[in-house]
Amino acid sequence: MKKITDKILTKVIRQRPADSFKGTYGKVALVGGSQNFGGAIIMASLAAVYSGAGLVTTVSDSTNQTSLHDWLPEAMFVDNNQFEMAEPILSAATVIVIGPGLGTDEKARTLLERTFALAKPGQVLVIDGSALTLLANSKLTLPSGPLNVLTPHQMEWQRVSGIKIADQTPEANLAVANQLNAIAVIKSHRTQVCLNNQVYENTGGTPAQATGGMGDTLAGMIGGFTAQFADKPAAVLAAVYAHSAIADQLAKKQYVVLPHQISESLPEFMHAHQAN
Amino acid sequence: MKKITDKILTKVIRQRPADSFKGTYGKVALVGGSQNFGGAIIMASLAAVYSGAGLVTTVSDSTNQTSLHDWLPEAMFVDNNQFEMAEPILSAATVIVIGPGLGTDEKARTLLERTFALAKPGQVLVIDGSALTLLANSKLTLPSGPLNVLTPHQMEWQRVSGIKIADQTPEANLAVANQLNAIAVIKSHRTQVCLNNQVYENTGGTPAQATGGMGDTLAGMIGGFTAQFADKPAAVLAAVYAHSAIADQLAKKQYVVLPHQISESLPEFMHAHQAN
Amino acid sequence: MKKITDKILTKVIRQRPADSFKGTYGKVALVGGSQNFGGAIIMASLAAVYSGAGLVTTVSDSTNQTSLHDWLPEAMFVDNNQFEMAEPILSAATVIVIGPGLGTDEKARTLLERTFALAKPGQVLVIDGSALTLLANSKLTLPSGPLNVLTPHQMEWQRVSGIKIADQTPEANLAVANQLNAIAVIKSHRTQVCLNNQVYENTGGTPAQATGGMGDTLAGMIGGFTAQFADKPAAVLAAVYAHSAIADQLAKKQYVVLPHQISESLPEFMHAHQAN
Amino acid sequence: MKKITDKILTKVIRQRPADSFKGTYGKVALVGGSQNFGGAIIMASLAAVYSGAGLVTTVSDSTNQTSLHDWLPEAMFVDNNQFEMAEPILSAATVIVIGPGLGTDEKARTLLERTFALAKPGQVLVIDGSALTLLANSKLTLPSGPLNVLTPHQMEWQRVSGIKIADQTPEANLAVANQLNAIAVIKSHRTQVCLNNQVYENTGGTPAQATGGMGDTLAGMIGGFTAQFADKPAAVLAAVYAHSAIADQLAKKQYVVLPHQISESLPEFMHAHQAN
Q: Could you tell me if D103 and D131 are in contact, meaning their C-beta atoms sit under 8 angstroms apart?
């Protein structure tokens, strides 16, 4: 396995060109957040905005409108009961992130299906959290157009890939990722990423991160990074590394690292680790 | 009486094992927060998350969903009018905290009864605030399955134990705690904890803490500590001590210490006081 | 006129006795905040909590419940459409603050009347903002039981006292305050306080404070101070001075001082200026 | 073209006179924020308050009431479905800002028409965001009474002026601005301002600002500056410069600058750059 180290950061995080505008940094649309799991989509949206995406829209349950804006007036909101309003936004997005706090009920499944139907070539589609469970439990297949990025933890990967956790070797994981024609970010103590017929192992990460919402934050970061940076697979690796490196930094002083703290640390971290 | 000192911290707060995940740190479910007392369950939930619980779910009045997520996107939410959705979460919890801001009306009583009916061996059940008043005023008996932890202030203890405040000697308190087969955390200037047939007296605490919400925060911390640490009675003592020690620190510069500040100080405090 | 200087702080802000509890520091109930002016009652409530009141309850329009708890989980909430739930709380309060953002419509008038009817000897009643306008425009008379503290700016004082701003001399102001048997805090560049047949002039204050919400914050501070400190008239003077002294401190670095920043500065300021 | 440099700051930002009150610093009314774009009006309102406007009222969709107060208890709120309540406030305003997050539907158009109908001589009317798109797409003409300030980005300016982005030379822009009898703030990498028959080019600005909400923040700052400072055209230039200068400062340490951070930096920035 290749190692993911801090070198990926300066490779990916370019200095911003002086003559640029928000359109230069992409549009991220995030779909998730039921009445029960609204915090998840807030955390993912925070990560997308604080990593520098140009424009972020969050499609969620109406009960999450206020708490989204309390954290993030920078994001736009669409009620997922008015999904027809979200459709043109998803179509125009550089990256779609679906899953954080989406839930697994009938409504969630419909949102997933409609999103899969919209996703198209040139777009990145990040599939996280309950969207992975839905994918595993349904007869849905991944859309063939976009660059699909799956971000399961080991149990979700078992559901999606059929490989039991004990059998999740790099080779076995890569075989399924290749078959799915997707990038697979398999989260654990040392996260592995299957892409371009390679398996990469992350070298950062701390048990202080072992708390709810970490995965939502990573999904949002992958959204923010792939929206901005031209080399999409490298951007996934950089997001994975940055997420754990920030946690490692915070864990020098904290017993537990809160997911929203990682997002709030992104602007300074990315400044310190951009290309010269 | 034994004294609770800073030694309990390094005894309880272990270094986190590298290869761990959020499941390692337990699931806390908190039940409380009426329309009038929503802040109480928010403060308790903050304490549970910031002390490092792996997963936290808050079961509360629907009007508290947004303010919970404004403080804490890391927590999940269940409307207590849909208690059937909370039941599997309570059943799967490592720790249930019931009481902060619960109120004492008929609905509150029903929530308490249904929670008591679910709590089972292997779980910790923290009973705080209005749940103690309900317990005292009703014919409810404590569930026999879980490790019950009662966190009354002196007047609530009078209601539960029948011992008048003036007569709350360590011996009298211990006798009732033993009879209830519960850990009793009797909050006052110098909080006393009855457990394992011993009475422990806390050595920390400041009058700067004398403000609404301190007890809710302690209940949430007991939830977070017992969810993570194997020795449950010791975890209760560590939470009691940490709560007062953080307040003592903040009171060096503050005339009054706000409860939410204690929670927000937990990650650094616990880092500084973990086992070597 | 006597001057209000920093001496009032150490005279009033006592060191907290070790063996005290939240009941020692009083109960403040605040009534205000219509759908349009919810921020005002939030700012007043913040000031009451951050100045150290033991227990704070906010009685406001239901649409302000969430934003109150977003700022202040430490406060309890009562919907002012269920004023019967507020009545026992107002009756048990050490201090009632009425007016911040109350509005001047029929509902506001009814809330004022019902509050006046409840206020009784031993209590402090702080009357601020739109409650002063209502008082001036209606045939209401101040309740005879409580210690009434009026906190008008100059135009509101004109409405209440009938004295035009140009004619608001210390003597004229004192005559009306005596006649009303109330403490009058007449806010301006140099706030004057009529009490105990004396006029006191504040020596602090900065034009950086000239922004909406400053008065609401002062009303809440008067609530918090009179709830805790035995000498109620001196507590009013101390609140007036502290409010301006904190603003003066912040204005050394800020062009404008936001009201909520004054409240958030209270714990450190009061710690630094308590009695030795 | 003239350059806008830091000299404009000390020219415009006066030391506040000691004997002043909130009325001295003007009233700003902001109209915007649909259910989808509530964050935009929050960011604009933040900028108006933090730049020192005396009184700020936000007229928006009812679903934005809570999130506005979560950020800004200092602002008052009017539901835009009760626009008759907003009308006296708009009439009494020193400055009206319309457009941030307003949307372009029929309701938005009606709000724009009613605001145009109210705006009158002596007032500043800042027209931003979707209000510019509505203006371009409708047969509305700018009101003749107020000082109109348009704040388009280049595409919005194309819609309003009919000049394609490639053809937006200073001369062409000025000709249309003169014809509209408006100040035009044309936002880009180097923002240009057409006023008093001159074109001014801003010398600050960073690609770290290229994120959603920057324009809303600038519109609110123009509102806050023109409300306080006597020379309205100079105040527009000072707001434009300050907005970019704060971003430049923050970008020394941040890869991306969040719009709300600019507003929160205003009190210290303006203190440091006021007239001696």
A: no
